[in-house]
Design brief:
Number of strands of chain B: 10
Structural class of chain B: alpha/beta
Largest sheet of chain A: none
Radius of gyration of chain A: 21 Å
Distance between the termini of chain B: 44 Å
Helix content of chain B: 25-40%
Order of helices and strands of chain A: HHHHHHHHHHHHH
Oligomer: heterotrimer
Largest interface: A-C, 46 and 49 residues
Chains: A mainly alpha (334), B alpha/beta (259), C mainly alpha (296)
Number of helices of chain A: 13
Shape of chain B: globular
Number of strands of chain A: 0
Shape of chain A: globular
Helix content of chain A: 55-70%
Largest sheet of chain B: 6 strands, mixed
Chain lengths: 334, 259, 296
């Protein structure tokens, strides 16, 4: 395999991993709990910005070019910046959730979330000393380069980072799997299907939704952090609301409520979306047509799936409970 | 088992209950009691306020005024999920099954206080909540057997017929081992055979000691099952008694003709 | 005081435009229960149609206004009948419908991008001379905008309060099944609602561009935020609420922009929205408690 090809594959794997993380988080919120979080990218951005400003040095340091202004700048090492990002994602979800989730009906909530994410973009773009405004942050150093003794931007480092991403994916998968397969997951799905009936069955709808929202938000932040630490830059254009639509597409097309389906969706939608320009022939004379066409095709695909197969390629698994014989068959001693 | 209310005391007492929407008084000072061990009927013409009253008792609607006491404890503003945990469950007028969950899962949802429902419990995994889950599955299968729906266990609730969905809702409400079961038109739109079966189940439940408050339009069912019966009209309680007594009362007959 | 009155003037103009748009938006939700996220993009498309008539065919922009409105009406009707209603009949959930409207929004916006490119387009028009009124300065165009908005609001008021159609719309909005059982042909009412709200949508799109003089493919979508905020503020589904919300948002954002950094206009809208959601999620107008936008 040529070096250039290896670079390509390894970065593709990293993007795929980051997208899977995001999709699992979004799936928890939308697929399992039925919360239409159109502001999802906002939480990814929160994680990305947190990881970025904590990993970078102080703003005035000449090491990062001296042209960016932002808050923070603590030169934090890797696992800490990631944890901080997750924490920020969780806290932001807590705040937004308490305001919006408590009293708003599902589709009304969707609208409000859209509004919230647009406004956040606005604030960041205009308040230049927060996160360097529209220009965004750059020159974020890649993590753990001195620990593993690999030069940043080298092929070996990329494979290392892909491995790192895979590890993070496994950890997040554990959380997501435990939740969806438990009575908590079942309660969330019930709330999704009929909120009033779930409350009449003793479920504290607000609290349970907040759990899904906060965990999903933390995962979103982790995804954003992993992405920014790899590509080294992050600007408002990366998190406009249509980006949520791409992730939404992955969840819907792959299979809402199904963690495996969502993984496939992440491969089909965001990754295909990203790579399509590379493979599609340039329309003669109109290279700028590719992007709008991509969006139109993605949106049409969404509509088609929502019509013909709303449960996605891999629908939510039907839960079966084994017939009880002696206590052992559900695994392990009583 | 927790101590029940003192003998002779009503299980549910509603005093001067009121609910207004703008200028409209859906419930306008209604007072009544439900005594333990009865199937108490709640009847009245359209717009009498029956469903609103049920909604307030169940905690789904906040009363504008008045007091609700359940097992001698004030629960007026308690939200629905708390009422369920206190032992008051309900069924809904319109089918309220969890469509994308299986029938068995629908029943499992009915049980409050599950260990695996907290974030911590979920993360600790199967070993933490498995035993309780198994017990609940047995309880659910037992109910499915009693209501003759065992073979539908793995069916998605959304794919059931209307009558089957009703049964699922009743079973689900029973999973919490409630002290009071609110039934909002349980037989509406159900074919007569199935309605008869449901009526039979309700009688069995009553004989087993369950108290029920039932809103119903079909007076034939009310005749068979309910004693006493409360009549509501225009947001207030008009009369109370057995069906025979009520039929003899002029004002009750008039309310039905007018409403 | 120096800054206040002129900014109040701006505020009134902005409020007029927002009101036109917000009433249409909220009518769609109120009567048909659909939050139409494609609303802003239909506005842009209507503005584009007016642009074609104006720049291409050389018509005076004010003559292009009704053409834009008509386009908005037809496009909105087509959207509902062609996309939303089939999905609803197909059994789609609320969540699905919202995603459907968002998909349509993206398709419309990107079609505009694909056909006309990412450029800015300007109407050939003059704003007219400046007029002083009550120490505020307006251009003739701005006065016309306010006049059109007032006329439209008044017409909507007459429609909803006195006409048979209006009453049918209100009945369908509050309980469609009940309305149908009373003999109201809800399908026709819904069609008419989309035509009327679509006309408002198209009208507001053209008017928006008349005020700002230029637009691009994403202009309408960007404006959706403010429209939504006004509608939510007034209690979504309530036309008079949308008018009140438009007034509050329009005036407060412009007045505050005069005193603090003007690029924060939208943030002011956000702050108001958050405060209202915290205190009174059903909107600032009195009267509604058991609400469509609020969980029971």
């Amino acid at each position: 395999m040529s070096t250039a090809y290896q670079f390509y594959i390894s970065s593709l794997l990293i993007y795929f991993g980051v997208d899977i993380l995001a999709c699992w988080g979004l799936n928890l919120q939308i697929g399992v709990a039925g919360i239409i979080n159109f502001a999802f990218v906002l939480f990814q951005a929160a994680g990305a910005y947190t990881a970025a400003v904590l990993t970078l040095g102080p703003a005035v340091s000449p090491a990062n070019g001296g042209f960016q202004s932002y808050i923070g700048g603590a030169n934090l090492p890797f696992p800490l910046s990631l944890l901080a990002a997750a924490l920020v994602g969780a806290l932001l979800s807590l705040v937004v959730g308490v305001i919006a989730l408590r009293r708003l009906r599902a589709d009304y909530l969707a609208l409000v979330m859209l509004v919230v994410s647009q406004i956040a973009v606005n604030v960041v773009q205009n308040q230049n000393n927060l996160f360097n405004g529209s220009a965004g942050l750059s020159l974020v150093p890649e993590p753990l380069t001195d620990v593993v003794h690999l030069a940043p931007l080298s092929l070996a480092y990329q494979w290392f980072y892909a491995g790192l991403t895979a590890v993070i994916c496994l950890i997040v998968y554990f959380f997501v799997h435990q939740i969806t397969g438990s009575p908590l997951g079942r309660a969330l799905r019930a709330i999704r299907d009929n909120e009033q009936a779930a409350a009449a069955c003793g479920k504290n709808v607000f609290l349970l939704r907040m759990i899904a929202f906060v965990v999903g938000g933390a995962i979103a932040a982790i995804s954003g952090a992993m992405l920014v630490l790899f590509i080294g830059t992050w600007a408002p254009s990366a998190w406009l609301y249509p980006e949520t639509f791409v992730l939404l597409g992955a969840v819907v097309i792959g299979g809402g409520g199904n963690n495996f389906g969502v993984m496939v969706g992440a491969l089909l939608v965001p990754v295909a979306f990203l790579e399509a320009p590379r493979y599609l022939p340039a329309i003669p004379g109109h290279p700028e047509l590719i992007e709008p066409l991509e969006w139109i095709i993605t949106a049409l695909l969404m509509l088609l799936f929502l019509w013909f197969r709303p449960e996605g390629i891999f629908p939510e698994r039907r839960r079966r409970f084994p017939r009880s014989a002696p206590a052992r068959d559900l695994g392990g001693p009583v | 088992m927790t101590a029940g209310p003192s003998p002779g005391a009503p299980l549910l007492r509603v005093s001067n209950l009121r609910r207004s929407y703008g200028g409209v008084h859906a419930v306008d000072g209604a007072s009544f009691e439900v005594r333990p061990g009865t199937i108490t009927g709640l009847i009245g013409p359209n717009g009498a306020g029956k469903s609103t009253a049920i909604g307030m008792i169940a905690g789904a609607i906040v009363p504008s005024d008045g007091i609700i006491e359940f097992a001698e404890r004030q629960v007026t503003r308690d939200p629905a999920y708390q009422m369920a945990r206190r032992g008051l469950t309900r069924t809904f007028q319109l089918s309220s099954e969890f469509a994308k969950l299986t029938v068995l899962e629908n029943l499992l949802i009915g049980a409050p206080g599950q260990r695996g429902e907290s974030l911590w419990g979920a993360l600790l995994g199967k070993r933490y909540w498995r035993r309780q889950e198994r017990a609940l599955v047995e309880q659910a299968r037992d109910l499915l057997g009693r209501f003759a729906m065992t073979e539908k266990e793995e069916e998605y609730a959304g794919n059931l017929s209307g009558g089957q969905k009703r049964l699922v809702e009743i079973m689900r409400a029973l999973m919490a081992r409630p002290r009071l079961l609110l039934l909002d038109e349980p037989m509406a739109g159900v074919n007569p055979t199935l309605a008869g079966r449901i009526a039979g189940y309700l009688e069995e439940l009553r004989d087993g000691g369950l108290t029920m408050l039932m809103v119903e339009h079909e007076l034939a069912h009310v005749d068979r099952l309910c004693n006493p019966v409360i009549v509501m009209a225009q947001g207030k309680v008009l009369a109370e008694g057995t069906m025979a007594e009520l039929r003899a009362r002029r004002d009750v007959v008039d309310a039905y003709l007018v409403g | 005081m120096d800054l206040f009155l002129p900014s109040l003037g701006f505020g009134l103009v902005t409020a007029s435009i927002i009101a036109l748009a917000a009433v249409g938006f909220t009518l769609q939700f109120g009567v048909t229960n659909i939050i139409n996220l494609a609303y802003g993009d239909v506005m842009t498309a209507s503005a584009m149609v007016a642009y074609i008539c104006n720049n291409g065919a050389g018509l005076n922009i004010w003559l292009c206004l009704p053409i834009g409105a008509a386009f908005g009406a037809l496009a909105s009707l087509a959207l509902n009948r062609g996309v939303f209603v089939p999905f609803i009949r197909h059994g789609a959930s609320l969540l699905t419908i919202v995603i459907v409207t968002l998909a349509c929004a993206l398709i419309i916006q990107n079609l505009l991008l694909a056909i006309w490119g990412p450029n800015f387009f300007s109407y050939s028009m003059s704003s007219g001379r400046s007029v002083d009124a009550l120490s505020m300065t307006f251009t003739v165009a701005q006065l016309a905008i306010m006049g059109i908005s007032l006329a439209a609001m008044f017409a909507i008021h007459l429609l909803l309060t006195f006409s048979k159609l209006g009453k049918a719309m209100r009945a369908t909005a509050s309980n469609a099944a009940l309305a149908r059982s009373c003999g109201i042909r809800t399908e026709r009412i819904i069609d008419l609602t989309w035509l009327i709200s679509g006309a408002l949508c198209g009208l507001s799109g053209v008017v928006l561009v008349i005020n700002t003089t230029s637009f691009t493919a994403g202009t309408g979508a960007g404006f959706l935020l403010v429209i939504a905020a006004a509608a939510i503020l007034g209690g979504i589904g309530r036309p008079y609420g949308a008018m009140a919300g438009a007034l509050v948002i329009g005036i407060s954002t412009e007045v505050s922009a005069a005193y603090i950094n003007p690029s924060y206009k939208d943030v002011v809208a956000f702050g108001i929205l958050v405060v209202v959601l915290l205190i009174r999620p059903q909107g600032i107008l009195p009267g509604s408690t058991s609400e469509k936008g609020v969980t029971t």
